[in-house]
Specification:
This protein is of the alpha/beta class. The chain has a single domain (4-290), classed as Rossmann fold (3-Layer(aba) Sandwich). The protein has helices at 17-25, 73-85, 95-103, 189-198, 200-206, 210-239, 287-290; strands spanning 4-9, 29-34, 50-53, 90-93, 107-110, 116-121, 123-124, 142-147, 149-153, 159-163, 171-174, 178-181.
Length: 294
C-alpha cells in the first residue's frame, strides 16, 4: 500500500512542521504542494494514501462579489469533496478545516466572538469515544489557536468531536475518514513567533503582549506533543491501512456471543449541542494577556 500523502500548503508561514515530522515518523511520505506558489491542485487523489490541508490567513468564504479567498480554493474544495466521497483519510487544519466545511455544505463566517489567539483548551465531546483518532485524546487537550473566522454550521451528518465556549465547532469528522481541526497542532514555537511578529498590530488591538504570548506558547509545547504526536501517528496508521476508519465501539455483554452484539452498534450521527451545554474552558494566558476574547 502506498504511503504517499498529499500536503496542501496554503500559506508560506504555515507549513507542516511538527505535524509533518510526526506523520513521517508514522511511515507516511509527504508530497508538499505549495498552492500559494502557484502549484496546481490535482483533479483527484489517485496514488495517494492520505490528504492533509494546512492553514493560512485567507478567508474560507467568498467575498461579496463571489471572489474566492484564494484562486485555488474552488479546486481544493472539489478535491476535499472527492476525499470525503472516496473515504481517503483526510486531516484539515484551521483554514483547511473551514474549507472542508464549506466544501460540504457547512458554513464559515467572521466570528462574532472575535479572534482566538494563543494556547487554549478545548473540550472533547461524547461522540469522540467512538472515533479512531479522538478516542484516546484527553477530555480537555491543549491546543494552539490563531483564527478570526469560525465554522458556524457543520456539514450535514458531521460528528462534533471537540468544542469550546465561544467557538462550538473546534473539531469534527465527516464520513469515516475526514477530520477538521479549527486549532493548530502543527506549530513549533518559531512558527508561532513569526505569526506574532507579522500580527503585532492585531495583537496590540487585542491587548496581547507578543513576548508573553510566545513564552506561553513555548511553555505548552511539551503538552501539545504529548497529545497530538500520538494523534498524528494514529492518522498515519489509518492511512497505511493498519487501523480501521472511525466507527462505533461495542461493549461486550456477559455471556453474549460475538454475533449477538451487532444490533447494539450505534451509528455515528451529527451532534448539535447548543453552545450553552459546552463546558467552559480557561485560556492558558492571564486575562490581561488574553484580551477581550477568553
Amino acid at each position: 500500500m502506498t504511503a504517499r500523502t498529499l500536503v496542501v500548503e496554503n500559506d508560506p508561514t504555515d507549513d507542516a512542521r511538527r505535524l509533518g515530522d510526526w506523520l513521517a515518523e508514522g511511515g507516511l511520505d509527504l508530497d508538499v504542494l505549495r498552492a500559494h506558489e502557484g502549484a496546481e491542485i490535482p483533479d483527484d487523489l489517485d496514488g495517494y494514501a492520505a490528504l492533509v490541508v494546512l492553514g493560512g490567513e485567507q478567508d474560507a468564504f467568498s467575498a461579496a462579489d463571489g471572489t474566492p479567498g484564494a484562486p485555488w480554493f474552488p479546486a481544493l474544495e472539489r478535491l476535499l469533496r472527492k476525499a470525503v466521497r472516496h473515504r481517503v483519510p483526510t486531516l484539515a487544519i484551521c483554514l483547511g478545516a473551514q474549507l472542508l466545511a464549506t466544501a460540504t455544505a457547512g458554513a464559515v463566517e467572521r466570528s462574532a466572538a472575535g479572534p482566538e489567539v494563543g494556547p487554549r483548551l478545548v473540550a472533547r465531546r461524547d461522540k469522540a469515544v467512538d472515533d479512531v483518532l479522538f478516542a484516546d485524546v484527553p477530555f480537555a487537550p491543549d491546543v494552539l489557536q490563531w483564527h478570526r473566522d469560525e465554522i458556524t454550521r457543520l456539514p450535514p451528518n458531521a460528528v462534533l468531536l471537540a468544542a469550546s465556549t465561544h467557538y462550538p465547532h473546534q473539531a469534527f469528522r465527516l464520513g469515516p475518514a475526514a477530520w477538521g481541526l479549527q486549532f493548530h497542532i502543527e506549530c513549533d514555537t518559531a512558527m508561532f513567533a513569526g505569526w506574532a511578529r507579522d500580527g503585532a498590530a492585531d495583537l496590540a488591538d487585542l491587548g496581547i503582549a507578543p513576548e508573553r504570548l510566545i513564552a506561553a506558547v513555548d511553555a505548552v509545547m511539551p503538552d501539545l506533543e504529548e497529545v497530538w504526536r500520538p494523534f498524528a501517528l494514529r492518522f498515519a496508521a489509518l492511512a497505511l491501512g493498519k487501523t480501521e476508519p472511525a466507527g462505533p465501539r461495542q461493549l461486550p455483554l456477559l455471556g453474549a456471543e460475538p454475533d449477538a452484539l451487532a444490533p447494539l452498534a450505534r451509528a455515528p450521527g451529527p451532534e448539535e449541542a447548543p453552545p450553552s451545554l459546552v463546558a467552559p474552558v480557561a485560556p492558558l494566558l492571564s486575562p490581561d494577556d488574553a484580551g477581550p476574547e477568553a
